[in-house]
């Protein structure tokens, strides 16, 4: 199981109403499960800490939700940069050249 990281957005109060706290915990669990499946399938990097990756996804969603003015272009940019950063890196190519 992935260690729990509190993915509360900066400036947001921790805790809050019990329903909000329960929904937040459920969302973190769903994101952790989704990322674990993606990691196992080789769809995202395995060198990043799973808890950190969960926070990155959560904070990106928070930034998108808080962006003013709301913009499809900005949303696409956030998601593209996040996904590019999570994409596995191709193995280093051995060109056969030696450094003498």
UniProtKB/TrEMBL annotation:
Any one Pfam family match given in the protein's UniProt record, by short name: TetR_C_43
Ranges where the Transcriptional regulator SbtR-like C-terminal domain occurs: 18-88
InterPro entries named in the record: Tet_transcr_reg_TetR-rel_C_sf, TetR_SbtR-like_C
Region (Disordered): 1-20
Top-level taxon of the source organism: Bacteria
Gene3D superfamilies linked to this entry: Tetracycline Repressor, domain 2
Official protein name in the record: Transcriptional regulator SbtR-like C-terminal domain-containing protein
């Amino acid at each position: 199981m992935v260690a729990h990281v509190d993915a509360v957005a900066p400036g947001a109060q921790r805790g809050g109403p019990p329903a909000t706290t329960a929904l937040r915990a459920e969302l973190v669990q769903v994101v952790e499960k989704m990322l674990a499946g993606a990691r196992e399938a080789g769809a995202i990097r395995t060198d990043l800490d799973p808890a950190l990756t969960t926070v990155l996804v959560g904070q990106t969603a928070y930034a998108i939700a808080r962006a003013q003015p709301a913009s499809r272009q900005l949303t696409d940019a956030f998601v593209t940069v996040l996904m590019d950063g999570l994409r596995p890196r191709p193995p280093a190519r051995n060109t056969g050249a030696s450094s003498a």
